[in-house]
Write a structure and sequence with these properties.
421 residues, seven-stranded mixed β-sheet, 16 helices, alpha/beta, Serine Threonine Protein Phosphatase 5, Tetratricopeptide repeat, Metallo-beta-lactamase, Chain A, 2 domains
Length: 421
């Protein structure tokens, strides 16, 4: 093992400023000791941790397929200890798909995950084309996306657990705790003898992204439970799956509890609205993070939005119907749009009004522009309007999810324009 002095983490303040890419994605591939015998590895999209023990390395997450070889190379610059155990904090592709280079190098680790990771991998096999499309829409990815769709492309866990699992490795105790939040298969790791928590995506230094408009059910109530559990163990160092390390028992506790409180505030407002019989749109429009919580930079809605979290809760508790009777068995949007164009006297009035509203009411401007493009799919002015209106709204949107899907509308219209040339 290596007792190299840890880096001074006090120079890193994950609560101060920056875009989601500066706060959440590191943009570099680098491995460093952040505590004795503890390596923190950053990649373009995700972090992982390697604990050196007397029996070998414990690797918490493996990174993406594309980063797997780099992760192996960078960690091997610091330690030659054999790979003893791999822990997946959950089954997302950025955390659990990068182990292959280690196996090809002859390592034979035990691979541990929550039992629901198995189901996630099987779902990925069934829904690969959908997931490719979702990520293209969400992140504007132009290059080919390689999503595993066959059993041999996954590294399947050989050890699974349900609620909690305690590992005794190299004379140390490592506790694995199940949490629901972004996924239903999440694990956070408490290296008790080191005072270190590996939070996976349970804590990432911004408002939790549990309302993604294109993804499966997420769990804000249970996410708050997980944050409160992490706060209770008294960790001195928190190593997240995204973003920067956090140091200090009291600060770790404070940030986890405040983030949990923000989630619980969104949950309460949403469920109160459902119980009061409010429409979904009225509930979503009323959601506010309390001011004393919203002022904290680590609760910034940089990835997700409170409104999206509320919609996710509505789906969980209240079904998919919006409450407007015409939307129960609706006409197709294209048919609605053509009728709106007819009533407006053509495409031009919709385009003109959308442009007038771009600054004062961008939400309504987006409706008008979209109606114009759907109702007159070969009209250049309609698609130019969509590009301008949605593009401008995307530029002013803070959340990565919102910005990505607003930009998607503009990209779709640009493709139509290109095809009309």
């Amino acid at each position: 093992m290596n007792d190299e002095k840890a880096h001074d983490l006090r120079k890193i303040d994950p609560s101060v400023g920056g875009t989601v890419f500066e706060r959440y994605f590191t943009g570099k591939n680098e491995a460093n000791y952040v505590a004795p015998n503890t390596i923190f590895m950053t990649t373009n999209y995700v972090n992982l941790v390697a604990f050196e023990t007397l029996e070998g390395l414990i690797l918490v997450d493996t990174g993406m397929v594309e980063a797997g070889a780099t992760v192996l190379e960078e960690i091997r610059k610091l330690t030659k200890a054999p790979l003893h155990t791999v822990i997946f904090t959950h089954g997302h592709m950025d955390h659990a798909f990068g182990l292959k280079p280690w196996l090809e190098a002859g390592e034979k680790p035990r691979v541990i995950a929550h039992e629901n990771v198995i189901r996630r991998f099987r779902t990925y096999m069934k829904m690969a084309p959908m997931n490719i499309n979702i990520n293209r829409n969400q992140f504007g990815i132009v290059a080919d996306i390689h999503w595993p769709d066959k059993e041999g492309l996954f590294t399947w866990p050989d050890t699974i657990y349900r609620d909690q699992l305690t590992l005794h490795i190299g004379g140390e105790i490592f506790e694995l705790h199940h949490a629901k939040g972004e996924t239903d298969d999440a694990t956070w790791v408490w290296a008790r003898d080191r005072g270190i928590v590996c939070s996976g995506d349970t804590y990432v230094g911004m408002l939790p992204h549990c309302g993604n408009p294109q993804k499966v059910q997420r769990y804000p109530e249970e996410w708050a439970d997980g944050l409160e559990a992490i706060a209770s163990v008294g960790a001195e160092l928190l190593l997240p799956g995204h973003g920067h390390p956090m140091e200090g028992k009291e600060e770790i506790r404070r940030r986890c509890l405040i983030t949990a409180e923000a989630l619980r505030a969104i949950v309460k407002q949403t469920l109160d609205g459902l119980n009061a019989g409010l429409t979904h749109e009225d509930i979503v429009a009323s959601i506010k993070i309390p001011e004393h919580l919203a002022k904290e930079p680590f609760v910034d809605p940089l990835y997700d939005r409170p409104e999206f979290i509320a919609r996710n809760l509505i789906r969980r508790y209240g079904g998919w119907w919006s409450g407007f009777s015409s939307q129960l068995l609706p006409a197709k949007m294209a048919d609605q749009s053509r009728e709106i164009i007819r009533l407006a006297g053509g495409v031009a009035p919709l385009v003109t009004r959308a442009r007038e509203l771009m600054d004062s009411d961008p939400a309504l401007a987006c409706h008008l522009a979209e109606w114009a493009a759907l109702g007159a799919p070969e009209d250049r002015s309609a698609h130019e309007c969509v590009i301008d209106v949605f593009g401008k709204r995307a530029e002013s949107e803070n959340s990565l999810m919102g910005r990505g899907l607003l930009s998607y509308a503009a990209r779709k219209s640009q493709k139509v324009l290109d095809s009309l040339d």
